[in-house]
Amino acid sequence: MEFQQRLPQNLKETVLFMAIISVISVNLIAPIITGLEVGFSLNHWAMVLHQLPLLWVSVIILVVVTQQPASKMASYFLDQNASFRSTMMITAMCNVFLMSLVLTILGTWIGTGSVTLDPVVHFFAKWPRNYTIALVVEAFIAQPIARSAMAWLHRGMVTEGSRLS
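Given the sequence above, the corresponding structure tokens read:
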């Protein structure tokens, strides 16, 4: 029951779920990583805000592209009797793993506004930090908020359905 209540049940709910997660993630992960790179200041934060729309679109596309491979990867680590929480955590780890591989390079290109080899050259120095930041934001902030929104939405639908009967 917890599984059904806390996850999207149709396309409309899936879009809402993705929107919640992606907006929270992009607005937290990008400024944190940028702050660690160039320092935390209002000017740097404002600089990041200008890049967020393109980064957000990239994240949405990447979520769609990596969903299937991440689910397949997660299935290697989960058995049939896995709990809801362990399933969500392993799935988040796999999704973030694949997305962080791409976004460590692509995010740098978007953020700097130039395509260079610098993020490729420094990939192995920066990727572990980026993965950790993204995993913490996804697993402990963005996804719990989105799952709570789904539970709230489904509770409202059940209550509304009860009144209509």
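The radius of gyration is 18 Å. Try to locate this feature in the token string yourself.
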